[in-house]
TrEMBL record:
Recorded GO MF terms: transmembrane transporter activity
Protein name as annotated: Putative MFS-type transporter YxiO
Classification via SUPFAM superfamilies: MFS general substrate transporter
PANTHER family: AUTOPHAGY-RELATED PROTEIN 22 (PTHR23519)
Principal location listed in the UniProt entry: membrane
Pfam family, one: ATG22
Compartment(s) of residence: Cell membrane
Annotated ranges, domain Major facilitator superfamily (MFS) profile: 236-431
C-alpha cells in the first residue's frame, strides 16, 4: 500500500471492512439461513425467494428516498462524517441483532435484514462521496479499484472463518448446530466491520464542503430543488446515471440473489459457500485489472466489457443445471463485478463538483437503489409466475442491453461540473 497516502489507505480499508457484510449477509450465509428458516415455517422455495426479493426492494426504496435529501444536508461542513457514523451504527448494530432472532422467525429476520441493509447502504453513500476528499481525479480509477480489490480480500477472511465454523458444525466436529454456527457468522461480520472502520474515523476528513447556513435543513431542500432543475443541463451526467440505472440493476440483482437462486437449483449450502469464497478471491485481482486497463483503454470501454460479460452470465444462468455450471457462472461474475462497480464510482466522481459530492452521490445512490428495486422485483414476480427462478435471471438481459445503448452516447468525462456553483450561489473550499 506504499503507493497510497494515509487518507487513501484509510478510505480503501472501509471497503475491506464493509465488504464482509456484502458477502456474508447479502450474498452467502444469511440467504441460506433465511431459506432454511422459511422452509421450516412451511414457505415454498419460490415464495421465499420472492419474499427476499421484495425485502431487498423495500430496503433500497428507503435509501433511494433518503439519499439525495441526506446527501444535500451532509455537504455542509462537518456533516458528512456524522451521517456516515449514524448509518454505520445502524448497519453494524442490526447485523449483530440477526444473531439473536429465533431460528423459525423468518419474517423477523427479513425486518432486521432490511434495517441492516439500510445502514450498510446508507453509510456507503457517504463513504463513496469521501473519495473526492482523499484523492485526485487522476488517481480516482486506481484508488476506487483498489478499494474493491481490498474489499474482496478483506471479506474473504471473515467469510473463510465463517465457512469453517459452519462446515465443522455440519460435520459434527464442533458441538454446534448449523443455525448457531450461522449466527456466529453474523457476529463475526459485525465485529470485523466495526474494527476496520476505525482507520476511516481517524484519518478521513471532509475537505470539500459548503459553508453552514442558519437553517441547514431548509436550505438543503432549496439546494436540492435547484439541483433537480439544473441537472438536465448536464447531459453527460444525466446520460451516465441513466445507463448506470440499468446495468447496475442487473449487477446488484445477480449479486444479492445468487445464493437463493443456487439453493432453488438444489446446490448444497456447503458447496455454495465454497464457491462464493473462491469468487471473492478471484474477484480481487480482476478489480485491480479493470482499474489499470481503464487507464489504457478508458473506463467507458471497460464498462462495456463488464456489461457484456454479465449478459453472458444471464444467458448461461438460464441453462444452469449442476454444481459445475454454478462454478463456471460464479467465475464469470468474479471477473467483472468489482471492476464494473469500481469504475462506475470513479467515473461518476469525475463528473461532479467536489464540494457537493454528497448531494450528487445521493443521486448516484437514488439511481442505483431505484434500479435495485426493479431487478429483484422482476426476478421475484417472474419466479412466482413461472415457478422457475432461472426465468427471472434470464430476463435481466434486457436491462444490460438498454444500458449499452445509452452508454454509447455518453461522452468521456472532461471537466467536473464546477460551474454548477455559479448557478446555485454556493461555494466550497479546502481546509
Amino acid at each position: 500500500m506504499g503507493k497510497f497516502s494515509k487518507q487513501e489507505t484509510s478510505w480503501i480499508f472501509y471497503d475491506w471492512a464493509n465488504s464482509a457484510y456484502s458477502i456474508i449477509i447479502i450474498t452467502a450465509v444469511f440467504p441460506i439461513f433465511y431459506k432454511a428458516a422459511a422452509t421450516q415455517a412451511g414457505v415454498s422455495a419460490a415464495n421465499s425467494t420472492a419474499y427476499l426479493g421484495y425485502t431487498i426492494a423495500i430496503a433500497t426504496f428507503i435509501l433511494a428516498m433518503l439519499g439525495p435529501i441526506l446527501g444535500t444536508i451532509a455537504d455542509y461542513q462537518g456533516f458528512k462524517k456524522r451521517f456516515f457514523s449514524f448509518f454505520f451504527a445502524i448497519g453494524v448494530g442490526f447485523t449483530a441483532c440477526l444473531a439473536f432472532v429465533p431460528d423459525d422467525q423468518w419474517f423477523l429476520l427479513l425486518v432486521f435484514y432490511t434495517l441492516a441493509t439500510v445502514g450498510s447502504a446508507g453509510a456507503n453513500v457517504f463513504y463513496d462521496a469521501f473519495i473526492v476528499d482523499v484523492t485526485t481525479e487522476e488517481r480516482m480509477n486506481r484508488v476506487s479499484a483498489r478499494g474493491f480489490s481490498m474489499g474482496y480480500i478483506g471479506s474473504a477472511i471473515p467469510f473463510l472463518i465463517s465457512i469453517a465454523i459452519i462446515v465443522l458444525a455440519q460435520s459434527h466436529i464442533l458441538p454446534l448446530s448449523t443455525a448457531f454456527a450461522s449466527k456466529l457468522a453474523f457476529i463475526i461480520t459485525a465485529l470485523w466491520w466495526g474494527l476496520f472502520t476505525i482507520s476511516l474515523f481517524k484519518h478521513v476528513k471532509q475537505r470539500f464542503y459548503i459553508e453552514r447556513q442558519p437553517h441547514p435543513v431548509r436550505s438543503s431542500f432549496k439546494r436540492l430543488g435547484h439541483t433537480l432543475k439544473a441537472i438536465k443541463n448536464y447531459r453527460t451526467l444525466f446520460l451516465f446515471l441513466l445507463a448506470y440505472f440499468f446495468y447496475i440493476d442487473g449487477v446488484g440483482t445477480v449479486i444479492s440473489m445468487s445464493t437463493a437462486y443456487g439453493t432453488d437449483l438444489g446446490i448444497r449450502s456447503t458447496h455454495l459457500l465454497i464457491i462464493l469464497f473462491v469468487t471473492q478471491v478471484v474477484a480481487a485481482p480482476f478489480a485491480l485489472i479493470y482499474g489499470r486497463l481503464a487507464e489504457t483503454f478508458t473506463a467507458k470501454k471497460m464498462l462495456y466489457v463488464g456489461i457484456c460479460i454479465y449478459i453472458i452470465v444471464c444467458i448461461y444462468a438460464y441453462f444452469l443445471k449442476s454444481t459445475l455450471d454454478f462454478w463456471i457462472l460464479a467465475m464469470l461474475v468474479a471477473t467483472s463485478q468489482g471492476g464494473i462497480q469500481a469504475l462506475s464510482r470513479s467515473y461518476f466522481a469525475k463528473l461532479i463538483p467536489k464540494n457537493k459530492a454528497n448531494e450528487f452521490f445521493g443521486f448516484y445512490n437514488i439511481f442505483g437503489k431505484f434500479a435495485s428495486i426493479m431487478g429483484p422485483l422482476l426476478v421475484g414476480v417472474t419466479a412466482q409466475l413461472t415457478g422457475h427462478s432461472n426465468m427471472g435471471v434470464f430476463s435481466l438481459i434486457l436491462l444490460f442491453i438498454i444500458s449499452i445503448i445509452i452508454l454509447k452516447v455518453v461522452p468521456q468525462p472532461q471537466e467536473p461540473a464546477s460551474h454548477y456553483d455559479k448557478d446555485l450561489n454556493v461555494g466550497g473550499r479546502k481546509n
